[in-house]
Amino acid sequence: xxxxxxxxxxxxxxxxxxxxxxxxxxxxxxxxxxxxxxxxxxxxxxxxxxxxxxxxxxxxxxxxxxxxxxxxxxxxxxxxxxxxxxxxxxxxxxxxxxxxxxxxxxxxxxxxxxxxxxxxxxxxxxxxxxxxxxxxxxxxxxxxxxxxxxxxx
Amino acid sequence: xxxxxxxxxxxxxxxxxxxxxxxxxxxxxxxxxxxxxxxxxxxxxxxxxxxxxxxxxxxxxxxxxxxxxxxxxxxxxxxxxxxxxxxxxxxxxxxxxxxxxxxxxxxxxxxxxxxxxxxxxxxxxxxxxxxxxxxxxxxxxxxxxxxxxxxxxxxxxxxxxxxxxxxxxxxxxxxxxxxxxxxxxxxxxxxxxxxxxxxxxxxxxxxxxxxxxxxxxxxxxxxxxxxxxxxxxxxxxxxxxxxxxxxxxxxxxxxxxxxxxxxxxxxxxxxxxxxxxxxxxxxxxxxxxxxxxxxxxxxxxxxxxxxxxxxxxxxxxxxxxxxxxxxxxxxxxxxxxxxxxxxxxxxxxxxxxxxxxxxxxxxxxxxxxxxxxxxxxxxxxxxxxxxxxxxxxxxxxxxxxxxxxxxxxxxxxxxxxxxxxxxxxxxxxxxxxxxxxxxxxxxxxxxxxxxxxxxxxxxxxxxxxxxxxxxxxxxxxxxxxxxxxxxx
Lengths: 153, 488
What we know:
The complex is a heterodimer of chains A (153) and B (488). By secondary structure, chain A is an alpha+beta fold. In chain A, 24% of the residues lie in helices and 15% in strands. Chain A is built from 3 helices and 4 strands. The N and C termini of chain A lie far apart (36 Å). The model of chain A has no long low-confidence stretch (mean pLDDT 86). In chain B, the strands form 3 sheets. Chain B has a two-stranded antiparallel ribbon with strand order 1-2. In chain B, strands 3-4 form a two-stranded antiparallel ribbon. The longest helix of chain B is centred in the N-terminal third of the chain and has 60 residues, at 86-145. Classes of the chains: A alpha+beta (153), B mainly alpha (488).
C-alpha cells in the first residue's frame, strides 16, 4: 500500500487530469510524487498582464499533514514575479504555506490562492529585506520562518 | 410531537476524508473498518486517525499550535476527549516544572563558572600585584604599607593591586598612550596610611629620636630628594618616557638609515612598533612585501609566517594544505609574541628590583650615586613612621589658630601629602626610587642591545654578495672568450 501522501497526490493528480486546472494554471510536469511544476499567469486586468511564471511544488512523505514547499522557479528564461511577498529567488512569504496550512487545502487550491495574491497586487516591488534574505536563504523555503505581516493572503 | 432526527456521520452515503481524500461508500465499508469523525459545524469529515495525526503534528509546532484544534474551514473548535487522568496531568506539570528548574540550573552553573573564573583571575592578579609591590617598594616599605596579611590591607589595595599586572601589560601594548607601568604603584600608595602591625608602634611625637625628618620640614613646600612619587608617576615618568621614545626613534632612524630596500623594511618595522622587532624582522625576511600568497607559492617560497590579515585575504587562493600550514605558523608566531608580551610585562617588577639592588651595590663605590639614590639605613625594628605626624596638630601654634586658618592649614597639609607622599614615604629607605631608576637603566640597556641587533642585521643584509668562482670546471672551448689563446 502506497503511503498516504502518494495516494492523496494520485487523487489530486487524477482530479486535475479529469477536471482540468483552474483558469490560467497549467500542469507542466507531475512525473513523480516529489516535485510538480505548474505554469501560472494572472488572467484579466493586473500588474502581471502577459507574464507567465513557473511554480514548483515539493512534497515530503508527510503531505498533506505537512505543507508542500512551494516556490517560483527562477532560471534563465523566467524570474520570480515582482511582488512585496515574493523574494527574487522565488521564495514566497504566504501564511497558507506555513502556519496557516491545513490538509483541507490542495495543490490547485494553493495555485489559485497564489494567483489571486498576484492579481490583487497594487505595487510591483520586492520585499524590503529581499537582499538580506536572498543572501542567506535556505534551499527549501519551508526552512525559513517567515513573519507574516497582516495583509498577506 | 416527534422530534426531528438529526443526521450523523453514519448517515452519509459517501464519506470523504478531507485529509487523505479517501472515500468510503456506505454500501462498501472498508475492511478492516476505520473510524470516521465529524468534528465541527461544517460538512468536512475525516478519518479519526487522520485528524488525530494532523492535530498532533500541529501541536508539536509552536507557530501552528493555535490552529491545531479548530476546523480549517468553519473555524469551530474541535473537542478532544481523552484518557487524561489526574496523575498524567500531574506528571505533565512536574515535567514542565523540572524543565524550568533545569533552565535555572543551566544559567546558575554557567554563572558559577564565570564567577569562579573571574574570582580566580582577580585573586591571581591581586596576589601578583602584592608581589610586584613588594619587589618595587622593598620589603621594609611593603611591610609598613601592605604586609603579608590581606586582612590588614587598606581598602584601596583591593582595587589597586589587581590593576598592577593589567597596567604592566597595557604599558607594553603597541598603543601610542603614555601609560607607564608604575602609575598604579606611584599614584595610590604614596598617600596610603601605614597599617599597624601587631608588634610595632606607629611613632609620633614632636621630636622623636627615631624620625630623621623634622615634621615641620615635612611641610616644606620646596622639592625634596628623592622627588615626590606622585609627581614622578603623574608627570615626570610619562614625560621622560615620551621624550625617550622620540629620541630612540630618531636615533634608530639615523642608525639604520640606508639605501637598500631591506633598510626601508626595517624602518617600517621600527616605526610601527618597537615591542617585538626581533620577531618581526624574521617575519619580514621570509615574506616579500605585497606578494600575494599564490605567487609566493609559484616561486617556491614557504607561505608561512604571514601576518594574519594577509592570510585571511589569500586563504581562498592557497591550496588547502598550504593554508593549514600557514594558519599553524601564524598561530605559533602570534602565540610566541603574546607570551612574550605578557611574560615581559610581568617580569618588570623583578627586573626593576634586581636593577635597584644592583644600583645600591654600585652606590657603595660612588658618593654621587649614593646622593642620587638617597639611600637610607633601614628603620629600627618595629618602628613605623606615621602617615602624617600628629604632632603637627598639637602644640601652641595649632591651638592658637583660628578656624579658617586651621582649615587652610589642613588643606595645605592634604595637598602636600597628595603631591609629596606621606611621612612614611619620606622616612623609609626609598627602594622604589632606585628601582624606578634601575628600570630606566634596564630599558635603555635593552634598547641598546636591540639596536645593536638591528644594526648587525642590517649590516649583514647590506654586505651580502654572491661569491664569484672561476670557470675551473668548464671546458674552455665552450666559452666565448675575448682572448682564447691565453687559456688554451
